[in-house]
């Protein structure tokens, strides 16, 4: 994470631009997840996530909020109903939303710091090292 506590503004959205968001705040727990659930949802070997507090987060594209799909009781995934892009995860009662790092307009500013479910990772990609990784800002 950044060495400063200065609030940052991030923007992002889906592939077609229908769903857009703006958030002012610091990134929380940037990670990649290799669980079976994330692999199925993404169609790839992992999903890269970063959290932001809901305070300071807004949906501001022409499509408003994404379409929500409950993947488990209390676990909701947001996607664009037009282009199908997976954008976020929001648990019932949570104080933070996790967006896919690749949905950020500038995804180079957030670097995953840990890999969740490394035991479920595909064997043909290196794992994200734990520790010593910092989020660039």
UniProtKB/TrEMBL annotation:
Residues 10-120 form the CENP-V/GFA domain. Keywords: Lyase, Metal-binding, Zinc. PROSITE patterns: CENP_V_GFA (PS51891). Pfam families: GFA. Belongs to the Gfa family. This is GFA family protein.
């Amino acid at each position: 994470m950044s060495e400063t506590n200065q609030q940052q503004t991030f923007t992002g959205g889906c592939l077609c631009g229908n769903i857009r968001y703006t958030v002012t705040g610091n990134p929380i727990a940037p990670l990649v997840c290799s669980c079976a659930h994330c692999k199925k949802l993404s169609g790839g070997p992992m999903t890269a996530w970063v959290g932001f507090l809901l305070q300071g987060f807004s949906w501001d594209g022409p499509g408003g909020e994404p379409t929500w799909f409950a993947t488990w009781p209390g676990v909701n995934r947001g996607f664009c109903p037009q282009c199908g892009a997976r954008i976020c995860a929001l648990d019932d009662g949570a104080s933070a939303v996790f967006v896919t790092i690749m949905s950020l307009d500038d995804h180079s500013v957030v670097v995953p710091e840990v890999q969740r479910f490394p035991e479920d990772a595909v064997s043909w990609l290196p794992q994200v090292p734990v520790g010593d990784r910092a989020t660039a800002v």
